[in-house]
Design a protein that fits this description.
301 residues, alpha+beta, Rossmann fold, Dna Ligase, domain 1, D-amino Acid Aminotransferase, Chain A, domain 1, 3 domains, 5-stranded antiparallel β-sheet, 4-stranded parallel β-sheet, 9 helices
């Protein structure tokens, strides 16, 4: 197969591993800088050009689209879909999962366990919003934030009101979420490919920190997940429409709660901790499913 990898940086661990895994299995892999691809949106022959040349003959595309370039990256991916190239994750599914509020609403509609979450627009509604998510302590999240940036824990009602007012004053969209104390600063990252959780790790925040992101000093360890956690992760990825996803789950007193569904999960933490060839499993999924014109939405989403 000829496979395009949409990534801004070919030296990133995840991009590098996917290229290595694809080449080891005999595929032609090409890394394409997402922002350097440009499109000819013609009725009968949609094209993508890259560094002055048309991109042709690709069987599949692996999107590694950073959150800051979601809009343009999904437009490029949609163009690949219109050309009949099979995407590992479809543009419409990536757009859906990147919208924190929309993704929680979709998961909620299907009965997936979630932390109690509130969303409001007017400063007048802040006190009721805080009570709605069971009061302080609580978590405030910027809807546009990624990798733990724009996530604040507020210990008191007064602190929460101040933080929410500040964000609203800057015209940022925020949501308030209940703090799951029993999770103890830990979450579970489930790596889903197709209809299987192929690996899972526990991420533990460093002392004095509540965000468990590995690049914020969190540590990762192997964990055995329960059948309920496994099913929750698979269902959450399916609801988003993602073939490959990192589903972040909190363990609470009332079962597993989904925090986020990530459409471009990093490979370094999960491969290093579990010793599994996750990149190889991603390529195997493409081999089984990646024939041309198999995109469900064909760029219509």
């Amino acid at each position: 197969m000829k496979v395009a990898v949409l990534s801004r940086n070919p030296r990133l661990y995840s991009t590098r591993r996917l290229v290595e895994a694809g080449e080891q299995r005999g595929h032609e892999m090409q890394v394409i800088d997402t922002l350097r691809a440009y499109m000819n949106i013609a009725s009968h022959k949609p094209q993508i050009h890259y560094r002055g040349q048309p991109l042709e003959g690709f069987d599949a595309v692996i999107p590694r689209i950073g959150a800051s370039v979601t809009f343009y990256g999904c437009a490029v991916l949609r163009q690949f879909e219109m050309m009949g190239v099979f995407p590992l994750n479809e543009s419409v599914a990536i757009t859906r999962s990147r919208d924190k509020l929309r993704s929680l609403q979709l998961l909620s509609r299907k009965g997936i366990g979630l932390p109690v979450t509130g969303f409001a627009n007017s400063p007048d509604d802040i006190p009721d919003l805080i009570q709605m998510v069971n009061g302080a302590p609580l978590i405030i999240k910027l809807l546009e934030g990624t990798q733990g940036i724009g996530v604040v824990m507020c210990e008191t009602q007064q602190a929460a009101e101040s933080v929410i007012e500040a964000f609203m004053g800057l015209k940022h969209n925020i949501m308030a979420q209940e703090y799951i104390k029993e999770a103890g600063g830990a979450d579970i990252r489930c790596f889903v490919i197709g209809d299987k959780v192929i690996a899972a790790i526990k991420r533990q925040a460093k002392p004095g920190e509540f965000r468990s992101n590995l690049h914020r000093g969190g540590s990762a360890s192997l964990i055995k997940i329960t059948p309920e956690e496994r099913m929750t992760a698979i269902r959450a990825a399916k609801i988003m429409g993602l073939n490959v996803a990192g589903v972040d789950i909190l363990r609470s007193l009332h079962g597993p709660l989904v925090m986020e569904v990530n459409s471009s999960p990093g490979l370094e933490g999960i491969e290093t901790t579990t010793g599994k060839d996750v990149a190889g499993l991603v390529i195997q999924y493409l081999e089984k499913n990646g024939s041309p014109n198999r995109t469900r939405t064909r760029g219509q989403g």
